[in-house]
Each structure stands twice: as structure tokens, then as C-alpha cells.
């Protein structure tokens, strides 16, 4: 055992209990991890023949306090993702200069505070929610970007529009195209998905490729750009950028495991 350390967890100066080998987070440590991550992802993009500058990292701070967000900001990160509206609001108020993204499921009764707090909402999973967000955004006089979440892996445990339904809707002007035409206050900027946990790189790439192909078909159908593809987390980020991700949601690779 290292001198001065004990088995189990370690309390950092900020308070949370850390795994024994996890150092306290600092701007310097986050900056180093960010640089390593970018190098790895840019290399993956180049190997796939894609623009290595075409993606952006959304640093997922779920479970971490405002001090960690401020350290990440000092490290040069600007986009932060949160899973829950109620946890995010205090961080958004404390660090308003950051660009905040909601990457977790959005309940309809949290739509108004979400519209007020977030520049981008990745997890719109129903046409009713899309219409609600558009109405609230008009009332609040804000214009968040939203992404439609698609269950591209067809897993029962995952949220989002069913892939088979979305594919069918992308071939004709049905209710999805009509819903996209009706929104005016928000901007539907693209699509989001989550690959199966533990999937091999080839399986993850197939899921991400399916989302990209769906996005391309929808752009053709509605006649306007939907440039964003929110795909990939720490475990499958390389597969995501290889298939054209523009927003990659990264937590563990930057911040380590979430405090217990």
C-alpha cells in the first residue's frame, strides 16, 4: 500500500469519496485527459476518412459538483451535459458562461425549466414533447436546439423513437415530417442515440451508421439541414466519430467514475 493511503475510498479536499487510485480532479488533470481523448478521437476520425475537427465533446458532469465544472471550464471545456433537469439547474446558474446540454431523458413536466436552462436538448422522444418544447420556447422567447432521440438498437430498455417507425417516416411525408414543419421557436438540429452497453466496436458502428443514414434521409425529406449527430460515450466514442458523430457525450474519460 502506498504511504499515507488506506484501503477502500479516499476523501478528496472537496469532500466526495474517490476510489483509491483516482486522484482529486483539477483543471490540469482534466486538461490532460481532454487532450488524450481528443488525440484518440481525431485519430479514429482520420482512420475512417472523416474530418477530425468535425466533432465536439460534451463533458457530462452528472454527479459532479460545481467545483468540477469550474475546473473543467478552466481546462478549456465549454460544453457540459447533464442527465437530470433538477440536478443541472444550480450548475447552470453558477456557471452561466458554459453551454449546457440536456443529455438524459426529459419528462414533460420538466419541459419549461429545461427550455430555460439548456442551449441544447438531446433527448426529445415523442412528437408531443417536441410540440410542448416549441410552445414553451415561444413563450419564453428562447430558441434551444433539440435533437430527436432514436432507439437505433431496438432495445426495450432504451428510450427514443422506434427505429422502424422513424425509417418508415423518413420515406414519406407523414406525421414526423408534419411535426418538423410545425415547429418554429426551436430548431430541430439532428438526432441522438445510445449504443448497447458493452457492444463491440463493429456492433456500435452499425448502430451509429443507422442513425446517420436516418438523418440523411430526413434531411432529404424535409429539405433542410439537420447537422448534429449526438452519438458515443467514453466506451464507444471512437466508433461514433468514425460514423460521423458531431457531439460526443463524455464523462468517465474526463472525470473518472462518478462519486458514490
CATH class: Alpha Beta
Beta-strand fraction estimate: 15-25%
Q: What do the pLDDT scores average to?
A: 92
Largest sheet, in brief, is: 9 strands, parallel
Output the number of helix runs: 10
By helix and strand content, what is the structural category?
Answer: alpha/beta
Measured between the Cα atoms of the first and last residue, the distance is 23 Å
CATH H level: which superfamily? Answer: Alanine racemase
Task: Examine the secondary-structure arrangement and name the CATH architecture.
Answer: Alpha-Beta Barrel
Q: Work out the radius of gyration.
A: 19 Å
Number of domains as seen in the coordinates: 1
What spatial form do the alpha-carbon principal axes imply?
Answer: globular
**What is the tally of beta strands?**
11
Low-confidence stretches: 1-18
Percent of residues in helical segments?
40-55%
CATH topology: TIM Barrel
H/E topology pattern: EEHEHEHEHEHEEHHEHEHEH
